[in-house]
UniProtKB/TrEMBL annotation:
Molecular function terms, GO-annotated: peptidase activity
GO biological process: proteolysis
Organism: Dokdonella ginsengisoli
The EC number(s) this enzyme carries: 3.4.21.-
Lineage of source species: Bacteria, Pseudomonadati, Pseudomonadota, Gammaproteobacteria, Lysobacterales
Alphabetical list of Pfam families matching this protein: Rhomboid
The name this protein goes by in its record: Rhomboid family intramembrane serine protease
Record domain Peptidase S54 rhomboid: where: 148-294
Family (UniProt): Belongs to the peptidase S54 family.
Segments passing through the bilayer: 12-33, 154-177, 184-204, 210-230, 237-259, 279-297
Name of the top EC class for this enzyme: hydrolase
Keywords: Hydrolase, Membrane, Protease, Transmembrane, Transmembrane helix
Superkingdom assignment: Bacteria
Length: 494
């Protein structure tokens, strides 16, 4: 079974730099530091056979296994050890940390001092050759608690396929978890998850012989953390099970019992697979617990986590808005309102929704909500020229329709007109301001708006409307500061 979350693409803004560094570190260790290990191990095994170390150690190991036969795992190993060839038997012996610890004291070798000394010299040389393999020095050995090995094993792999599979999962999950945590917290979770996975695996395997390596425990921690960090947010993921596959959207938390259950199922029913299902399950649990701590401390980056939710809401809004506009085009006003009003409730400052609701009010018989709808559009601060032009159209349409009461106060109307030169409508703004001078000259902000619009027109080369407005301004307030500036500007036209 394969389940991979695929709902976020990498960009320069969310590039998972720590994930990329971890991938490069794993590739470097495998391609360079582990590259000669097969040759080193073969050389050590050849030396073991040439020096006939088996004549001392194989009988000692059989006796030691027999003496520990009360342990079911040891008994099974005793039976298996008797049926394997010398090369494999040597590797089995070398994987038993408890036996090696006792063997190196010399107490398991024949009591003859000369033979023991000969064995000791050959065993020391074999150990030197065996430990020359980088993998051997850093891989986890069951029944031995060594934090140094627990850390190093996270960067080791048993083959190219093992490496590629792990790195693909690290790339996918790293993008999602690093983005949710930030670089430093992500690295801490990855390393702690890997160490926790190794500790739980050792606890499960204690008393066994063998070794383990690979980044999958730390990657499993990312799986557990991913489920908890995204929680009930719906995410898109790809799944494959034998010949069936598909893309599905579901809450991320649903993946936690599926992923963990799959690892536990294989742990109990697929023991001969030589896969660290115990480390995988432990990593998922540790990662989930660490993510719970992150959420309790509010360290997660909610803006990153909510990007999908925001994008989905935006897409749904666009669809609803397009449908509402279509209804408006066919004069189906109630249907349009049914779509627009929930959008406005979700985002009260949505300019396009307010503008669409104005068109609804403009089309309704008797236009009972026209002033209210116009006010909702005109009172917003426009974000760009398109919204300024939309406000201009609504204002002029509202005046044409004779909306009562007026949708804007005089000060609001003056502020609205002041924005028009930016969209090439300065002359129209000047005409409206001239009307305000004659109708309500005491309106606060009117003089400054007139002077500002006249200057904008002058800078754009529209001399005639600029001069007309300046003359109105100077005639109305000759003794004011704005009147004095208008007089100086008019002098430039002479």
């Amino acid at each position: 079974m394969l389940i991979v979350p695929l709902h976020r693409a990498p960009t320069w803004a969310n590039m998972p730099w720590v994930t990329l560094a971890l991938i490069l570190a794993n590739v470097f260790v495998f391609a360079f530091l582990q590259s000669g290990d097969a040759r080193v191990r073969a050389d050590a095994l050849d030396y073991y056979a040439q020096q006939d170390l088996a004549q001392w150690e194989f009988p000692a190991y059989r006796q030691w296994l027999e003496a520990h036969g009360d342990d079911g795992r040891r008994q099974a190993l005793f039976e298996r050890f008797a049926d394997v060839d010398a090369g494999l038997a040597t590797q089995v012996l070398q994987s038993d940390a408890a036996f090696l610890a006792e063997l190196r004291t010399g107490g398991l070798i024949a009591p003859d001092a000369q033979q023991r000394e000969a064995w000791r010299e050959r065993r020391a040389e074999f150990d030197r050759r065996w430990d020359a393999a980088f993998t051997e020095r850093w891989m986890i050995r069951f029944s031995e608690f060594d934090p140094r090995r627990m850390f190093g094993a996270m960067f080791l792999h048993g083959g190219a396929g093992h490496l590629i599979g792990n790195m693909l999962f690290l790339a996918v999950l790293g993008l999602l978890v690093e983005g949710a945590l930030g670089h430093g917290a992500f690295l801490a979770l990855y390393l702690l998850g890997g160490l926790g996975s190794a500790a739980l695996s050792l606890a499960w395997r204690w008393g066994e012989t063998g070794a383990a390596l690979g980044a999958s425990g730390a990657i499993a921690a990312l799986m557990g953390a991913y489920c908890v960090l995204w929680g009930t947010r719906k995410v898109r993921f790809f799944w494959w099970f034998f010949v069936a596959f598909d893309y599905v959207k579901a809450p991320a938390l649903v993946l936690l019992p599926i992923w963990l259950g799959w690892e536990l199922l294989n742990l109990f029913w697929n023991e001969g697979a030589h896969v660290g299902f115990d480390a995988h399950a432990g990593g998922i649990v540790v990662g989930a617990l660490l993510a719970l701590g992150v959420r309790a401390l509010h360290w997660e980056r909610r803006d990153f986590l909510d990007e999908d939710v925001v994008a989905d809401a935006r897409a749904q809004r666009e669809v609803a808005l397009a449908q509402a506009r279509e209804h408006l085009g066919h004069l189906r006003i109630p249907a349009a309102r049914a779509l627009l009003e929930p959008l406005l409730e979700a985002q009260p400052d949505d300019f396009q929704v307010r503008a669409a609701l104005y068109r609804c009010a403009r089309t309704e018989p008797g236009m009972p909500r026209l002033s209210e709808a116009a006010r909702a559009v005109l009172s917003l601060a426009p974000r760009d020229g398109a919204e300024v032009r939309e406000q201009k159209a609504v204002y002029e349409d509202c005046l044409k329709a004779g909306a009562k009461p007026s949708p804007l106060s005089p000060m609001q109307a003056i502020a609205l007109l002041r924005r028009w030169p930016a969209v090439g409508a300065g002359a129209e703004a000047a005409a409206h301001l001239a009307e305000w001078i004659g109708r309500a000259p005491a309106t606060p902000g009117l003089r400054a708006a007139c002077l500002g619009v006249a200057r904008d027109l002058r800078e754009r080369g529209e001399s005639a409307p600029a001069r007309a407005l300046l003359e109105k301004l100077f005639a109305a307030w000759p003794a004011s500061e704005e009147g004095g500036k208008a007089r100086l500007l008019l002098a430039d036209f002479a």
